[in-house]
Design goal:
The structure is a single chain. This protein is α/β, with parallel strands linked by helices. It has helices at residues 6-19, 46-49, 55-60, 62-81, 86-96, 111-115, 143-153, 179-190, 210-216, 243-247; strands at residues 23-27, 103-105, 122-124, 127-134, 140-142, 166-170, 194-198, 220-224, 237-239. It folds into 2 domains: 1-37 and 84-126 and 177-253, TPP-binding domain (Rossmann fold); 38-81 and 127-170, SIR2/SIRT2 'Small Domain' (2-Layer Sandwich), CATH 3.30.1600.10. The strands form 2 sheets. Strands 3-2-1-7-8-9 form a 6-stranded parallel beta sheet, sandwiched between helices. The chain has a 3-stranded antiparallel beta sheet with strand order 5-4-6. The model has no long low-confidence stretch (mean pLDDT 95).
Length: 253
């Protein structure tokens, strides 16, 4: 059901939050746009500028890896400067209040951890771009180290231990989803009584299956997004509005 107007939507959301015992949020790129990080699909979003690089192309070609890392370095100032927005802070307030056991996110920007969620309580379906890993032995590398090597070698560096490519710790198109995170997300979706889908176009599968799973297991479903999503018809409440404005009233310091 779409909220009749913004204020009654926020009021209804407040009642649902008050009644819920276990709330599980599921966030997408829309929660971070007010922090200066563009989403994928909006006008001016990342996809309108660059075609995503599929995983097999990254693995197969040094030139492609160089291009992937050039794009990542171009975003570094944006990621480094971003701080949690009102949406992140509202969810962190509900987490501190004991209402949210853990959060599921499609985001790779680390802002839920920065807002106060323990890293163990952030289920990252698409990984994290604030550090890198070797694709062979999974050794962790910092972005600054990769940049320094790139500047010296004029090419994306390989692992110093095993020689395999180093990639941001994200899940690319064509790369398999992390099994443990998928299992934990499904578990969270099955055991909540309120599921909040926030800032996701809900078109990226299998992640977009979690709102439906939660609802099939008895949870109420709320969708907060400024444009329609494929799952609006299923939701108990749809607030088609800015996330920061919608969740701002739930921020507690
Ligand atoms: P998406 O770009 O497909 O959808 C974002 C949705 O949020 C859009 O429907 C947009 O209209 C809406 N939105 C944007 N700003 C909003 C605001 N202020 N208030 C309300 N709604 C707003 O993003 P997605 O569904 O998360 O999927 C794309 C994939 O891109 C993700 O899986 C993620 O891995 C990756 N990604 C992550 C980030 C990040 O970490 N911040 C940024 C871009 C892309």
């Amino acid at each position: 059901m779409i909220a009749l107007d913004f204020l009654s939507g926020v009021e209804q959301l407040g009642e649902m939050i008050a009644e819920a015992r276990v709330i599980v949020p599921f966030t997408g790129a829309g929660i971070s746009t007010e922090c200066g990080i563009p989403d994928f699909r909006s006008p001016g979003g990342l996809w309108t500028r660059n075609r995503p690089i599929p995983f097999d192309e990254f693995v197969a070609s040094q030139d492609v890896r160089d291009e992937a890392w050039r794009r990542r370095f171009a975003m570094e100032a944006t990621f480094a400067a971003a701080t949690p927005g009102r949406g992140h802070r509202a969810l962190a307030s509900l987490y501190k209040a004991g209402k949210i056991p853990a959060i599921i996110t499609q985001n790779i920007d680390n802002l839920h951890q920065a807002s106060g969620f323990a890293p163990d309580h952030v289920v990252e379906l698409h990984g994290n771009t604030t550090y890198a890993r070797c694709l062979g032995c999974e050794k962790r590398y910092e972005i600054a180290w990769v940049k320094q090597r790139f500047d010296v070698e004029r090419a994306a560096p390989s692992c110093t231990d095993c020689g395999e490519p180093i990639k941001t710790a994200t899940v690319s198109f064509g790369q398999s989803m992390p099994e443990d995170e998928m299992r934990r997300a499904a578990e969270l979706a099955r055991h909540c009584d309120l599921f909040l889908a926030i800032g996701s176009s809900l078109v990226v599968w299998p992640a977009a299956g979690f709102p439906v799973l939660a609802q099939n297991c008895g949870a109420k479903l709320v969708i907060i997004n400024n444009e329609p999503t494929d799952q609006d018809d299923l939701a108990d409440l749809v607030i088609r509005h800015d996330i920061g404005e919608t969740l701002g009233p739930f921020v507690r310091n």
